[in-house]
Structure formats: structure tokens, C-alpha cells
Specification:
Blueprint lengths: L1 E5 L2 H17 L5 E4 L6 H9 L8 E4 L1 E3 L10 H8 L11 E2 L8 H15 L4 E4 L21 E4 L2 H7 L12 E4 L2 H5 L3 E6 L5 H9 L17 E6 H4 L7
Parallel strand pairs: 1-10, 2-3, 2-6, 3-5, 6-9, 9-10
Antiparallel strand pairs: 4-8, 7-8
Helix pairs in contact: 1-2
The structure holds 2-amino-2-deoxy-6-O-phosphono-alpha-D-glucopyranose.
The site of 2-amino-2-deoxy-6-O-phosphono-alpha-D-glucopyranose has 14 residues, from α5.
Length: 241
Amino acid sequence: MNIIKVMDYAEMSDYACDFLMNKMENLQKPVLGLATGSTPEGLYHRLIEKKVSFRNVVTFNLDEYVGLDRKNPNSYYYYMNDKLFNHVDIEMDKVHVPNGSATNLEKECHDYEEAIREAGQIDVQVLGIGVNGHIGFNEPGTAFTSRTHIVELDVSTRQANSRFFDSMEEVPTKAITMGIDSIMDSKEILLLISGHSKAHAVARLLEGEINEDFPASVLRRHKNVTIVVDEAAMSEVKENK
Ligand code: GLP
């Protein structure tokens, strides 16, 4: 794993933007895996500011809540439009976000995998990490062999994400997410981590065992991962002290 230590959130976002721009420039038809949450917002903001062209870009988002309509401001579909797609020249038929309000969710999972396969491999997958080590919405205990599937969200994840909702009760209990194996199929992974709340997760990621109790640990088995991590998030890593 290539670990890039940066000072803070702004520097992490700058680095991520340059990294992604460089990859996109060198690909005819980039297939990007995208994430939501607070972490990649700065990256998306910079891509918009720099007027990066998304004309030939195909995107696949990692996950979506089950039961939220796409018009719901807390849905990840809405987030992606709001934070990125509405402000760049992407063709919306090249955008893929799992549909959490599909009537047949199993079929939706299957079709999503199929769509990724048809687009070829994901060239660069942008990732954040949950405080419990989740990637996408793959909670602790998820099989490393998992593909796109429906998950029951951890209480800790719902609590962490409740900041976006009016109350904890409104946070969905289920989500649809690309599986660990689907994520590991990406040619390259860009993991962004910022802030004290992630310090424990970073220490566990870099110094703990690789096992399903901590989903992100699997990334140590991937041959092309870049982690951009700021000082606050690095603060519990022993080697760093
Ligand atoms: C959310 C998302 C993940 C995201 C993570 C961290 O639950 N499903 O894709 O990476 O949690 O979010 P944040 O960047 O807001 O800390």
C-alpha cells in the first residue's frame, strides 16, 4: 500500500483531485468507482472547480440506502447529483448508483454486478472508511468473497450517519452495497481518510490483522492501493509516534 501522509482535509482533497485528474487524462473511457460521505466532498468540489471533463467517464457508486427515494436529499443518488454530477459534463446514462427502492432488490444487486462487468473493470475506486472499518456499506463480518448485496447496517454506522438526518429513527436500517470482492476487482483503489474520528480505524487498518472483523483490512491484499491520510487520522498509528 502506498501511504501518502498529508496535513489536513484540504491537502487530502487536493492530492486526491490531482491523482484522479492524472488517471482520467490517461484513460480513453475512465470507469470510476465513487463514494459518498463527508470524506470525498472536497475532492468533488475541486474536480468541479477545475472544470474536469467527465464526458467519456462511466461511474459506479459503491452503495445506497434501501427505502430512500432517489429524490430524498439523504439518498446517495441525490448526494452525487448535488455534489458532483449536476456540475460536470457527465452523461447521465453513464452514471450508476444502486437503486435502493427497486422492487426486486436481489435482481438489482445482480444487475449492478452485470453492469460493472459490461463496463469492464473499475479503473479507480475512490473509497472512504467507516469508524468500524466498513468500506462501502460492508460491515464487520462481511465475507471477503461478497459481491453486491443487501446489508443490515450496524448501529455504529447508523449513529455516525445520523448527523445527516433529523433523527436516528430516520436513518435506514438496510443498504445495498458493492461487495468486498467487487471492490477488490478494481484495478486501483484510492482510499481517503481524514480526522480524529478515524484514527482508531487507521491504526487497525495499518497494524492489525487482515480479517473479516475489519473489512478494510482486505485492502492490504490489493496490489494497487493509495491511502491519503491526514495527521489527525494517523495519530494512533504507533510507528508514527
Ligand atoms: C458511509 C458510506 C461509506 C463512507 C463511510 C465514511 O456510511 N457508506 O461509503 O466511506 O461511511 O463516511 P464519512 O466520509 O462521512 O466519514
